[in-house]
Amino acid sequence: MEKMELLAPAGSLEKLKFAYAYGADAAYAGVPFFSLRARENDFNIEKLKEATELRTRLGKKLFLTLNIFARNRKIKPFKEQIGEIAALKPDAFIMSDPGLIAMVKEAHPEIPIHLSVQANCMNWQAVKFWHQSVGVSRIILSRELNLNEITEIKNHVPDVELEAFVHGAICIAYSGRCLMSSYFSYRDANQGVCDNSCREKFKVYETPKQDKDYFIEDLRNKGEFYQISEDENGTYLMNAKDLNVIEHLDKIRESGVCSLKIEGRTKSIYYLSLVSKAYRKALDDLYAGKPFDPKIHDELAKISNRGYHTGFMIQDPDQNSQNYDTGISRYYSQRFAGVVREDENNLKDCLAIEVRNKVQKGQTFEVITPDGTEHFVIDDIYNEKGELTDVAHGGTGIKYFKSPIQAPPYSIVSLVEDHQASLRN
To answer: 277-291, 293-307, 316-330: which has the minimum mean pLDDT?
Structure first.
């Protein structure tokens, strides 16, 4: 049996480089105009060309996402542009629309098609249809499936590749088909502009009526009220915890899955790097015959999350799979501080860090690299003019930190602290 592939998200060319550096075997990137997550897509044809060249140099894989469900107006531009996209020679296209798939199969049959999770493929007969009748080589399974169902699919269609999500956000509804974003913000979740309404905080008001009607106020749009009922579980609307099955990779391998997919093209380099690194270690340990290292859980706890659970894959979700904590909705033990950049000012014994969150003298940095971590206490901080300062604010560019260590390429830094943040932090 071949080793399972670790597949990471790449929302930008820089994120792609970090995904590969932190252990991903493959990455997926969106094609402009034809990919969901369109609003946050940093790629264009030139950047995609650079991405495929990087993939080739590193001996990795790159899948390009063209997974929109197209309206009529998208057919003509898709037909006009697919040749230029195919010329990039990606390892596969990730697609969901049957019409667009047929166009690619006719014009560029040499490029494998992976069926997007947006197609909600959930049973072996559907998998058989897509694989044998349409020619799709891989199915990206719906997150609603459990391991027994996945095993049954593999048994019925043994020559198909199966890909499964193992980490990240969970949809409330069949994958990608939530209506709450459209209801609250007039933003269609299935067009890649979901506003995550189901994961936000709301305030509940009780009317003085005898039947005790309740209304919620969306705290992002104060003054707008929606009638609803509330119980003892709190005020979040269907706020799922985050998927995390890192402790169960052995069972996933036995089910026939060949690719482990990390969710999060719009998430930070910090999230991407730490999750990729954690799953890389867990996979390497698995294939080396080592038991699961529980310390990996500590690494994933450093990342902003809403609590972890195993989704539908390992066991049926219950009320503990929802985050009903009305005060805290994101948890993490360390805070992303910045990305180490090249020191153009050549300040001696300093790290040049593009600061992402507020950093103060006296705090402790953890320098995270693809191969390990090191720590040091922040002492001298210099601004871009070489002047000493006691604080560096996020979003203000590169600052220079006196450091006793050297940081290799693709290093990031976090602040070591016990930290819990509300949605507004």
So the answer is: 316-330
Nearest C-alpha neighbor of 160 from the set 64, 257, 63: 257
C-alpha dihedral (16, 85, 171, 275), degrees to nearest 10: -10
CA dihedral 90, 96, 101, 103 (to 10 degrees): -100
User: How does strand 308-309 pair with strand 242-244?
Assistant: parallel
What are the C-alpha distances in Å from 290 to residues 2, 226, 246?
Answer: 18, 52, 14
Instruction: State the burial class of residue 287 (Cβ atoms within 10 Å of its Cβ: 0-12, 13-18, 19+).
Output: exposed
List the one residue out of 140, 188, 189 whose CA is nearest residue 9. 140
Going by DSSP bridges, is the β-strand pair 92-95/61-66 parallel, antiparallel, or unpaired?
A: parallel
Q: Is the dihedral of CA 107, 112, 116, 122 positive or negative?
A: positive
| Dihedral of alpha carbons 403, 405, 409, 411, sign | negative
Which runs of consecutive H residues, i.e. helices, occur in 157-207? 180-185
| Max CA distance (Å), the chain | 72
User: What is the secondary structure of 359-392 as a DSSP string?
Assistant: EETT-EEEEEETTEEEEEE---EE-TTS-EESEE
Is residue 165 a contact partner of residue 143, using CB atoms and an 8 Å limit?
yes
Which pTM does this prediction carry?
0.87
Mind listing the pLDDT tens digit for each residue in 305-364?
888 999 999 987 776 777 656 444 567 889 999 999 998 878 889 999 999 999 999 999
Beta strand 26-30 with 61-66: parallel, antiparallel or unpaired?
A: parallel
Q: Give pLDDT tens digits for 41-71.
A: 789 999 999 999 999 999 999 999 999 999 9
